[in-house]
Amino acid sequence: MEDLKSRFYDDVDKKCPLNVYPRPQFERNMWVNLNGEWDFQKNKSEEFPDNYTGKIIVPFAPESMLSGVHEQVYPDDYLWYRKKFTLEKKETEGKEIILNFGAVDYICNIFVNGHKAGSHRGGYNDFSVDITDFTEVGQNEITVMVQDPTDEGHQQRGKQSLYSHGFWYTSTSGIWQTVWLEFVDKSRIKSVKFTPDIDSEIINIKTEATDNSASLSAEISFDENVVFSGEISADENIKIENPKLWSPEEPNLYCVKFKMTKDGDVTDEVKSYFGMRKFSLQKDEKGYTRLCLNNKIYFMTGLLDQGYYPDSGLTPPTDDAMKFDISEMKRLGFNMLRKHIKREPARWYYYCDKLGMLVWQDMISGGKALDTFHAGVLPNIQGVFIPVADFSMRDDTEKKYKIFNREKPEWREEFKSDLREMVNSLYNTVSICTWVPFNEGWGQFDAKRIATEVKKQDPTRFVDHASGWYDEGGGDFRSEHRYILPVQVPKKDGRAFVLSEFGGYSQIIDGHVWNKKKSFGYQMYSSKEKLTKAYKKLYSTIIDKIDKGLCASVYTQVTDVEYEVNGIMTYDRKLIKIDEDTVKKINDKLKKNN
Predict the structure, then answer these.
(1) What does pTM read for this prediction?
(2) d(CA 269, CA 462)
(3) What angle do CA 56, 178, 340 make, to 5 degrees?
(4) Where are the domains positioned within the chain?
(5) Superfamily of the domain at 189-274
(6) What pLDDT digit, counting tens, does each position of 320-345 carry?
């Protein structure tokens, strides 16, 4: 674990980091942020510790510098967190108390005043626990016990590793997103689901409530002008005349205020927003399948975005840190980020919605890592040294389940459950245009069937069923990765052809790397000038492929990550390695195809 600090390190409020409402599309006024200093104990027992010998700054994982712990967590470790808080009668009278977690990796049990209040399994999805029956006016105590097997388990963990090396990064265990309390009425809104239809000029709003006898109203406004106000049903179609469409160029958002009433009293108020936009496929005049935004062909020029920070791991150190990466890449002319094998806090997606940045959302990979032959050698010779027809690797047989390390049915079911939960939770995100269930064969299984299931759950977005290696002919994309070998345009098969990873050109800059001696990249350059020249030459070949069917490109990557030095920005976010004007001009050329 190196000691490189991000540009945001000194801005972190350690008394209460990330002290902003964490869920912008479902916002209430009565809440308390529990981030900050918690008692902490790491031991080998699942019994309550006799005492807590340490402190930790939540929501930073104990492996990170900003947590104040900065120690490796092992599979046989138990992490114990304790936080005392005070409830006043005016806050709790007639209210239910909900304890919310942005994410906890991986298995956790939650206790309130010594009573088990709930549990959760899965390291990336948000969850809530009703702790009303376990609290009292005055002082209360939350205890959270966590265990994380990291790469010795089958669970979804992305690129986390017990031992950082190559493109496997320092693990993130325990609480790593915001923890907060909400005080709510028994009659309240449980969820809201927005589905825009720009062709019919309609926004469909589906709501779930705890009390179906209560009435619900909504006020929709754009630029402070009210376009709808009135009572709505649980499944309501609302006409939006001449809608202001959302796009990266014009990220128009409609604000919504929901109000629930019962017996003349207001029982719940929630603020939210939505965007009117449409993602679809269509054939161009040459018969190539193209990606469309709002019924117009739209080329997506994007970047791989892994969302790691040198001082805080998977957790963004500040709210501005989330906004910074997006705004910088937009300033350079990119219109899309592929959020790679990670799910971000909700506010990251809010900034993509607000600033105008399309998102391809990866599912988090799980299972053991593939062996070198299946992960690197075989995929990179497809269509080059052997015919594509001889390369087919069906991933839906018992033999292939074993090769891809998904042999146990319960492992596969947990993946599917986590995937469904992620899609459901992020459904309202305006900027997400693509779901990516699998990447380069890591834990891949039944990819074609799973793509169909995802499309059924969310028919409004694209699905890239197998980014990179083992294409099963499903989903909306023929999705290829090319780092060393040249890009080859595949035969038409009715899907859009996307280059979902390429580039990875690298440079080591003293004072801005995780570890100079161990740094690596696919192709290394000694200066900004040489790196820029190579970048420009690489993109000239990409631009040439657009006329032959290429619909999107994803360059690796936004920033360096630990030993991997192939970022456009350094890991600390202090320097841009490639000449900015060159990057902007290239992106302008790519977007002229829109």
Answers:
(1) 0.96
(2) 33
(3) 105
(4) 9-184, 189-274, 299-506+552-559
(5) Immunoglobulins (2.60.40.10)
(6) 999 999 999 999 999 999 999 999 99
